[in-house]
Amino acid sequence: MIGLVLLGVIVIAALGADFFAPHDPYAQSLMRRLRPPSAAYPLGTDGFGRDTLARLLYGARISLIVGAGGALLAGVIGASLGMLAGYAGGLTDRVISILIATRLALPALLVALAVLQLVGSGLAVVVLVLGITAWDRFAVVLRTATAQIRVRDYVTRARVLGCSHWHILAREIFPNVASQFAVIFTFECAQCILAAAVLSFLGLGIQAPEPSWGLMMAEGRRHLGSDPWQIGFPGAALMLLVLAINLVGDGIRDLLAPDMPR
């Protein structure tokens, strides 16, 4: 419940950023650069004179889009491969298992850095890169779950009645592994948010002037000694969002899939 309340507050703040933000998050002014927190600027201003609170609120949108989009794309890829491997077995299972092992052997962050260096940055590109580098957990878990379910009586009955393989996968198997999918989705969402922040911090993720939290920390690190709030506020926001999502994921696991390992 704590995670759900915290996540709800962040989502409301992100959706209502146009209403809650006291200033334009993109408006620059060298006359008000590096102002400390005050009544006019509750969280101060950055090195370009932009309001930190406004950029945090709009940055929450970017973090949620990246997290949900990357995890959803990874879930579609991983769930499709995992369920297909667990249901078909045989050669199909072996080929997909090799793909999973190959993916696990590649450092996801290094692959993302290389791809972004080659094709460029941007919100859509970051979501795509995170999606194609984070599908392995979905595939591993749903492959095992599908292999256990495919021998159940209701699956056998559907096969005897002449249902197609796609019908069995979509109507008989997926509803019974949806709880595992939901649990993994929450954790991968948090991991995608962290990965996107790291990529932006390194200069290969969301690009300026977009208010990405990772980019805000990268811009604020040069002022760490004199103005620690430049990196402290976006870092705290990132920590709270990831914590909230992980707490919600724990609750979903306890509720829907209590047998899943921690």
What's the helical proportion of residues?
over 70%
Low-confidence runs of at least 5 consecutive residues: none
Report the count of strand segments. Answer: 0
- CATH architecture annotation: Orthogonal Bundle
CATH class: Mainly Alpha
Q: Name the structural class.
A: mainly alpha
Report the total helices: 11
Specify the overall morphology.
Answer: elongated
Distance between the termini: 19 Å
Provide the number of structural domains: 1
User: What number is the mean pLDDT?
Assistant: 89
Overview of the structural elements:
The protein is mainly alpha-helical and 262 residues long. It contains eleven helices and no strands. It has helices at residues 2-15, 17-20, 52-88, 90-105, 108-119, 123-133, 136-149, 153-160, 165-201, 213-220, 229-256. Helix 9 (165-201) packs antiparallel against helix 11 (229-256). The model has no long low-confidence stretch (mean pLDDT 89).
Brief overview:
The chain is mainly α and 262 residues long. The protein has a single domain (2-6, 72-256), classed as MetI-like fold (Orthogonal Bundle), CATH 1.10.3720.
Spell out the blueprint of helices and strands.
Blueprint: H1 2-15, H2 17-20, H3 52-88, H4 90-105, H5 108-119, H6 123-133, H7 136-149, H8 153-160, H9 165-201, H10 213-220, H11 229-256
Helix pairs in contact: 1-3, 1-11, 3-4, 3-6, 3-7, 3-9, 5-6, 7-9, 8-9, 9-10, 9-11, 10-11
Structure characteristics:
262 residues; mainly alpha; MetI-like fold; 11 helices
